[in-house]
Fold this sequence. Notes:
The complex is a heterodimer of chains A (about 280) and B (about 325). Chain A is mainly α. Chain A is about 75% helix and about 0% strand.
Amino acid sequence: MSLINASVDSAIAIAERRRNKLGSSVYSGRSSVVLERGFMALKTSNWIIVASGFVEPVLYLLAFGFGIGQLVGAVSGSNGQQISYAAFIAPALLATSAMNGAIYDSTWNVFFKMHFAKLYQTMLSTSLGPLDVAIGEISWALLRGLVYSLGFMTVMAALGLITSWWAILAIPGAVLIAFGFASVGMGITSYLKNLHQMNWINFFMLPMFLFSGTFYPLSIYPDWLQAFIQAWPLWHAIQLERAFMLGNLSPEIFGHILYFVAMIVLGLVFTTKRLTALFMR
Amino acid sequence: MNSSMSMQNMIEAKGLTKKYADFVAVDGIDFVVKRGEAFGLLGPNGAGKSTTMKMIASVSKRTGGELTILGKDPNKYGPEIRAHLGVVPQQDNLDRELKVHENLFSYGRFFGLSRKFLKGKVEELLEFAQLTEKRNSKAEELSGGMKRRLTIARGLVNEPEILMLDEPTTGLDPQARHILWDRLFRLKEQGVTLVITTHYMDEAEQLCDRLIVMDKGKIMAEGSPANLIREYSSKEVLEVRFGSSRNAEVAEQLKGIGDRIEILPDRILIYSENGEADLRTILTRGLDPVTSLVRRSSLEDVFLRLTGRTLVE
């Protein structure tokens, strides 16, 4: 597509270009314009609320890492090296930052846009398809997760908690984690009908945060409980970021990556289905 | 525009049906909308107008019959068809996080239109909607009439051949309605095909070249407003009130006056070629109505005749 032609293209010519392409009834290849709308609306966001989501894990790092860390002393990482308690929990809080950002946006904000602002109805009355909306909105939530994680990594670097060059991989790791949570978050939210049901999301989030090997290794639990926790996404996220931050790479990380790829795919499929059922039935 | 173009069918529906689990919203309707026409769907709430609109706008799949928009099947070419259409929903769903001009811009971007094109287009539409001075206001700060004009302007950003308006003036004050009608006339002059649902007969009479009267998912009648009135009603209507307790009893004594009599809870309607003469007859019979009024027949009367019910209940 040349730049000169783009300016004279009609909406119809643009839509017809995708005729007979795979998935053309649900996808127009323009999820980027959904993101664009997000940036346009950004300046009216409530910055205090946005910032508070970022601050939370930082406060945990300070209180637990440096407060309780004084009592705990050094702990051993998964390959036996001695690390500070703060260095042990920081990757877990990094994973939590990615999760929080993605979840805040893909649950409450999505619920608001879906049921009160009727934003998706508006988008779907244009030549956009439900998959464009799903990818666009999930990417938007992902970005918030990424921004939180980058902010958290900056804090970690400032506190001297980044010791390995492998830590650079924690950034794509955070993208993957945020993508997975955003995708599943929007998928679940699209099925919820009222604010009462929305509160259930918080009900699951807090215990998951506290018990997924965030503050101590999973090995202190009995086997059955370990297996239960390993079924939840945050454990995989924490293991992945801990491996990257501490430079302990093992084949296990592929399992964690796969877990998140599955989350992304499932979330996209269900979100698209649900948007179709809600607004195009 | 040559004559063959002007005869082109923009929308064709044959046996168009929409069933939900336990009820039939649209029950096998046939109609054709031609290029440049203002086509109305008139009926009470729940008649199936909005469902029909949604199927045309290809955001709702038909469950039976045939439907083509510009020759395209919405089940196959949904996004393409939506690119041809401008949609003005019943409830304003403007983007309240964005400013007035951003609402137009972002909507245009959803169609994939270039920034360069939209820069000019947005100014043109602000002008059309008489919102140039409000360009930097937040959408939610606008009055009801302004919001509706912005929603219409938004629906025009992709230069649609068909503009779909669902109850365009519901909830607006008389002045705002007239401004809106004026804008719609201008669009029609420019050759935009309008599809309008309404339960206001004055609106249908003002705006529509041709309309279908719908009730319970079916088409009861079709034609121009004038033809429908000629066919289904008399020239004039005499409305008399005797007080709600006496209406039914007095109606017995009105036999033989006018072509037809409708007894409503609050008044009696006498369909007639000469309302004043009939009113004199009533008075000479010694009946003394509390109030009386002679008016010309409207689509409301057509609807009452066809369904036995009033439009706005």
